[in-house]
Amino acid sequence: MTTTRSSQSHNSQPLPIILVLLAAAAAASTPLILQAAAAAAEQDEKQPITLPGCPDRCGDTLIPFPFGTKPGCFREGFQVTCNDSFTPHRAFLAYAGVNQHIAEIYYKVGWHHPVWRTDHGNTALELIDISVADGEARAYGLVSSLCNAANLSGDYVAKCQNLALGERGPFLLSVTRNLLVGVGWRVEPKIMSYLWSAYRNSTYEFSLACLSDLMGMPKLLQLATNGSCSSRGCCQAALPEAAPLTDFGTWFTIEDNPMWQTNPCTYAMVVESDWYRFSTPDLYGVEVLPRRYPRGVPFVLDFSIRNGACPGKGQKPPPDYACVSGNSYCANATGGAAHGYVCRCLEHYDGNPYIANGCQDIDECKLRKLNPELYPCSSDGICKNRLEGYDCPCKLGMKGDGIKGTCTDKFPLVAQVIVGGIGGIFIIAAISFLILLHKEKQKTREFYQKNGGPTLEKAKFIKLFKKEELKPILKSSNFIGKGGFGEVYKGFLDNEEVAVKKPISGTMLENEQFANEVIIQSRVIHKNIVRLIGCCLEVDIPMLVYEFLSNGSLDDILHGKKKVALNLGVRLSIAVESADALVYMHSKTNAKIIHGDVKPANILLDDKFAPKISDFGISRLIARDKKHTGSVIGDMSYIDPVYLQTGLLTEKSDVYSFGVVILELISRQKATHSDGGSLVNSFLEAGKKEKKVTELFDKEIVAEGDLEILDSLAAIALECLNLDVDQRPSMTEVVERLLIMNRSRKS
Ligand SMILES: *[C@@H]1O[C@H](CO)[C@@H](O)[C@H](O)[C@H]1NC(C)=O
Ligand SMILES: *[C@@H]1O[C@H](CO)[C@@H](O)[C@H](O)[C@H]1NC(C)=O
Ligand SMILES: *[C@@H]1O[C@H](CO)[C@@H](O)[C@H](O)[C@H]1NC(C)=O
Ligand SMILES: *[C@@H]1O[C@H](CO)[C@@H](O)[C@H](O)[C@H]1NC(C)=O
Ligand SMILES: *[C@@H]1O[C@H](CO)[C@@H](O)[C@H](O)[C@H]1NC(C)=O
């Protein structure tokens, strides 16, 4: 590489400032050479993306090498068929073994073995677009459906997608860019993977990915809300990273459908994350989704060069090495080195690394016309492209740096002399400063690595904030409280009100674990669970950024200094909705989440008093660490005594804690009285002595006269508190009963 790398291209910020000051004295006498850049801008031909003489598109789809349609135009495995019987023409992957088909299976009602089965023959996979920069291609995948049979016998027909990418082929299903989505009154979509080599004679089924469950109760259908795939009518789950997905099908757990007259179909699909928007009418009608998307729904494939590996340092690349462009480099495939490698252009270069001279220097000055924020250059500066970056010197007669927008009129002569005089001292100070800064940067980098930064970068679900972005928020005037494991500050990021959690130093988290937990948490999307927006890893103990909720915690509202009036209706809906969030967490069966610390302080309320559960996952993380030291998590007033005995945290532990929350909601008394007695005991004793528990109820809601409802609430709570774990209801049952109560109260 022969580049005129200027010292400014290192990205170290203070350097330019020093250079500017040093240059200030000299600048007066150095004439600025005006644009030679105009000449360079002329060669504005379109950059090739294919081998010479090869067609570069099929219909609306660009086909960059290694893909290609004509013999000699593609690398093995990347052949594309362009079918001209469509207008515009459509592109299909032509590699042998890449195809999909629908297997149709007929089931008699109540009989879970197939009666007959039809294979609708293989069809080629249709391409949507290709991105060589990301090593990705998008294609159309078919939607699987499970519907009541057309003759309305109550029998049903499963039409299941089977997708084959070929075990040795260049394609893998992207784990980070797709989701498994299920739509229906009750649907449990699954992925079945056929691992031909290792288990040729068997199929390997990934454990269930998500569950949408309206339990066959028509009235629960109204819980489904547009847009949110939150297990009510629609569920979604991240794909398992356990095994590379090349040959698989989407299927269902087959169950009799008591609602087939109104909701005859459920669907399963592997689809690009954030592409599908759930709409409640999708629950009704026959084959709604397959009919709406007859070509299929977009999903993302990773592609790589399979037969080969990146050459080691100093090693000569093999003759069929794919990264042939200058200014390109080789990287392991996303599925790991076992899946070969991909080629990428170096930073500051763009284009196709798979062809000679494919990676071209990015002309920032041209791009900034479209996106001035990305490549700043003030109006007092002149943008000049150069290899690996660009410069923006100030206009004649000015000094400063146009990239930083610091162009100002030059110093008067006297000032220049002074600057020259103190220059020497300044240089010494600057060098010491640089050394300090370098150390600080190194530390930042180390923390980032240690905290799982590289793992989290791959998951595109969450934002990684820089230390500097959060720093302004972490000041005492923004402090809003102290949680179980850290301090909470309120602030603004990207025009959104957020709560930043800064763990107390000394809290130990396992770092790889931390990254995984954060990924899981960021994928838990439910309207009653506090949303994790992002985190900052550049500090010793990672900080977390959550959405901000204006009404604080249920604990504050119930027992805070300022008495807030809460009628029974509000309390009931707080109970229903927080229980619903717990149901959702418990039903995420690919990675079931147990909260482990359910209590009013962890139930936050938004401006409309809708509850959102917080602090889960992380509390479990701390638990895992503390297990070694023998102490326990959670607040003793809420903790399941059975868990204390066995050390085994289950969903039923959350059920116990939720029971205590209900008692607090109806009594407005703290779980532990000031004299050390417990609310649970007060209720248990009142219940035992057949004494009415009525006197324990909060007078404010007793006045509303719904004593029957209060009694039922107390009864549910006491069931949740049962010491025989098996006698406790599940959260699903709790929600169901609370809902019925809520309805009977309204009517
Ligand atoms: C193009 O598509 C049509 C319609 O699906 C199909 O009948 C035909 O065989 C395809 N042609 C090629 C060359 O694949
Ligand atoms: C419904 O149709 C299927 C397939 O055509 C058939 O096997 C089944 O016996 C039919 N059921 C009734 C009740 O007619
Ligand atoms: C599959 O084949 C392997 C080796 O041939 C054998 O050991 C294994 O038992 C077979 N599995 C099943 C489920 O038949
Ligand atoms: C969702 O949107 C559709 C129209 O797109 C509308 O018919 C339906 O009533 C909406 N459902 C809810 C629960 O708002
Ligand atoms: C690719 O992965 C292999 C094995 O995991 C590793 O030895 C190698 O350094 C990696 N190469 C690059 C370029 O990351």
TrEMBL record:
Signal peptide boundaries: 1-29
One matching Pfam family: GUB_WAK_bind
Membrane topology field: Single-pass type I membrane protein
Keywords, ordered alphabetically: ATP-binding, Disulfide bond, Glycoprotein, Kinase, Membrane, Nucleotide-binding, Serine/threonine-protein kinase, Signal, Transferase, Transmembrane, Transmembrane helix
Annotated GO biological process: cell surface receptor signaling pathway
SUPFAM superfamilies for this protein: Protein kinase-like (PK-like)
GO molecular function list: ATP binding; calcium ion binding; polysaccharide binding; protein serine/threonine kinase activity
Membrane-spanning parts: 413-437
Residues the record lists as binding ATP: K502
Subcellular location field: Membrane
Main localization category: membrane
Record domain Protein kinase: where: 474-740
UniProt xrefs under SMART domains: EGF, EGF_CA, S_TKc
Entry-linked PANTHER family: PROTEIN KINASE DOMAIN-CONTAINING PROTEIN, WALL-ASSOCIATED RECEPTOR KINASE-LIKE 21
Name assigned to this protein: Protein kinase domain-containing protein
Species annotation: Triticum urartu (Red wild einkorn)
